[in-house]
Amino acid sequence: MDFRRVLRMPSISYSDAVNDALERMNDLGYERGQGVDLANHGPMGAEALALLGQEDEVARWVGRYRRAMEHHEPPAARFALDPADESSWRPALGDFGRAGDWELLFARELTEAHWRDVLVRWWPRLLPGLFAGLTHGLIRTAHAVRALSAAGRPTRLQRDELARGLAYWAARHSVLPGSPRLTGHRELSAAVAELPRVPQEGGLGPGTVRARLDGLSGLPGYHEALEWPAAEHAPRLLGEMTLQFADVYLGHPEVYPVPLIHGVTAPAAARIVLPHLPCELHGPTLARLWQVQATLLLAFTTDRRGEGTAAWRSEVPEPPPIAELGARAAEHGDEHVIKFTEACLREYALRPDPRYPAAAFAAQRRITPLDAGGGVGGVRPGTP
């Protein structure tokens, strides 16, 4: 099933659209925002938009994105990191002040070796910090990998984008407590359903969520849940992860509409990268992804609400046709909506479950359009 189908052929190729976008955003730093630093989504959103068959819209979207928000300056390199000396680079993991140093390290490595070799070398080193930037290190890396793998002759802009994805992952490296191992016997749907949710009087605000993240080890069921799912063939388990979190997203219209999206986009991003990694890295990657999903459930939900039910049909009785969802995401413009729509439709093409397009359309309804004001990734007035 081709979810890229559009009414007319684009006038520009996928690779040309991506390269043009990378050039237009080359001066943007890794993050944006005041008070709360948020990841730069520009390169990810542009690549996903091109993948959705909206190549002709990419340049216009980049202009909308740049006008909508001001990004921080790109970080400067200060002290060289030696990739061959663990005592040089390991202390810099999670130190955002070293982002420029990390970028220089990866840019240098990518000029000296094939990008797949660099990816394989650093993946196990960065994997424990998968939660970095709410998984945006992984996701930005994956979008860069997809563009590189599609290119006959990768460009400097594409290699630099992979360097920045890996650098952001390293600089925001964030290790969650516990050691996830897929040694249990539960289906993923059962693991999601059985994970205890902690009620919160007065609802979940930013401070409460932060406290939950800081106190993960003390939340009921957290450590036990890290070993609940059974190890499965990677593609099947990735599909279970994305489907269960499409269901979770639909089941929680009361939750701020952005964070739970990453329960789909992170494993969907891993699906892009795993074919380029040796098989022995697949299991540890899946285990870390489940740890992230359990963390999202414990931090951002207080009960199961409408999970595992058809309650979402009252909000999304009939999503638009699959072929229209990509164009609607382009028109909407929010970068989370674009990336989520692309991930949901890509997963739907592999497993045509109606919860994927329904979740994508729900996000388009719940999240403020890019040009509507009131911030990015916000809630429309009157939306639950």
- Rounded to an integer in angstroms, the radius of gyration calculated over CA atoms is 20 Å
Kindly report the average pLDDT value.
94
The end-to-end span amounts to: 33 Å
Low-confidence runs: 374-384
In which order are the strands of the major sheet placed? 1-2
Number of strands: 2
Distinct helical segment count: 17
Kindly estimate the percentage of residues that lie in beta strands according to DSSP. under 5%
Task: Please summarize the sheet with the most strands.
Answer: 2 strands, antiparallel
SSE string, helices as H and strands as E: HEEHHHHHHHHHHHHHHHH
- Range of helix content: 40-55%
By secondary-structure content and strand pairing, the structural class works out as: mainly alpha
Shape: globular
